[in-house]
Amino acid sequence: SAVISQKPSRDICQRGTSLTIQCQVDSQVTMMFWYRQQPGQSLTLIATANQGSEATYESGFVIDKFPISRPNLTFSTLTVSNMSPEDSSIYLCSVAGRLNTEAFFGQGTRLTVV
Amino acid sequence: SQQGEEDPQALSIQEGENATMNCSYKTSINNLQWYRQNSGRGLVHLILIRSNEREKHSGRLRVTLDTSKKSSSLLITASRAADTASYFCATDDQGQGAQKLVFGQGTRLTINP
User: Fold this and answer.
1) Residue B33 and residue A100: Cβ atoms within 8 Å?
2) Residues of chain A positioned with their CB less than 8 A from the CB of B94
3) Nearest Cα to A25, choosing from A34, A15, A16?
């Protein structure tokens, strides 16, 4: 199992600013994932963060808007840049174990952009 | 991209009744997982069923998987007020790389006392 600490748990930000979300795992993991959950919606994968290489972004998400760092095997950050009200969402980080094992999620960051 | 569809989108039942939620997906999978989310926070893993399994039980939970129909169901028996939450199915898309999860739209379950 993995315990994930994500912070901040929530924030209210002004439009045009940026917020960096941190995700700390209690064990070394190869891949970390960042998801977005818009209000009342399901989770959508933003990107996969691999240690030692650039993140891999899903369709509709770009590095300029959501830069990701992965400096080591236990830590990652997601930055939401130049925020607009449409970025108001819950952002969750996740790690996955071996194939056919469960994924683990942080408690999420509830972001409100005003 | 979202590939899963869940129905119903919302379900309201009386405490003690059984709740059934369905999930469909589009691609070949290694496994299908069910998660619960309380009040829009982190996800709690409930159960994982592998593609070569047809049924799995965990406590009051029963999950079935039909890979020929690309569908799964989650049954919660003898529901309790504490089961009130949103429930999501998630699949790992073999074609896109294992461990990347694709989530269904979710079912909002309300258990009335």
Assistant:
1) no
2) none
3) A34
